[in-house]
Amino acid sequence: MKKLGLLLVACFAFATISVAQNNIVKSLERNVPGQGKVTIHQDARIAALIGSEYVPAGSDEQKVIKSSGYRIQVYAGNNTRQAKNEAYAVATRIKEHFPELTVYTSFNPPRWLCRAGDFRSIEEADAMMRQLRATGVFKEVSIVKEQINIPL
Q1: Which residues contact 97 (CB under 8 A, 6 or more apart)?
Q2: Is 49 inside any structural domain?
Q3: Is residue 59 within 8 Å of residue 29, measured between CB atoms?
């Protein structure tokens, strides 16, 4: 009975992860010669329950899925104009050192934050955090759990 329970939990966890990332479902349904064909039949309400697609403001119409993940917090200040300027200055320095990294600067009352990246696993975030520290410019960095954007 315990094995059946563990199997059900494992299947549910895998199904939740797969459905949350629609691109995984689409990649499974791809027809690849020599590897067989997978067909997934699911109710449309399942996709509506797990992650929704949206177009972020100011983007070039790139669709993304929101998912649980990790970002690296590089700056946290207070609610002053100086903290705002510092948050944007840190964002600029991140882009200079790592142009491929997405940077998010926002005001979450009562403080300005500068966070970088969209990492699905804590290991990916940790590897990037070490690279940021290695530059010698970013010293007070930490990993935070947050909703991330996964491009489609």
Answers
A1: 132, 135, 137
A2: no
A3: no
- Bridge partner residues of 67 (DSSP): 148
- 73, 145 contact by CB (below 8 A): no
Residue 52 belongs to a domain:
no
pLDDT tens profile 81-120: 999 999 999 999 999 999 999 999 999 999 999 999 999 9
Looking only at the bridges linking them, the beta strands covering 103-108 and 64-76 are: unpaired
CA distance 101 to 75: 15
Residue 1's pLDDT band (cuts 50, 70, 90): low
Indicate the pTM of the whole model: 0.60
Instruction: Give the domain extent around 114.
Output: 62-149
Asked whether residue 27 is assigned to any structural domain, the reply reads: no
Q: What is the DSSP string of 84-122?
A: HHHHHHHHHHHHHH-TTS-EEEEEETTEEEEEEEEESSH
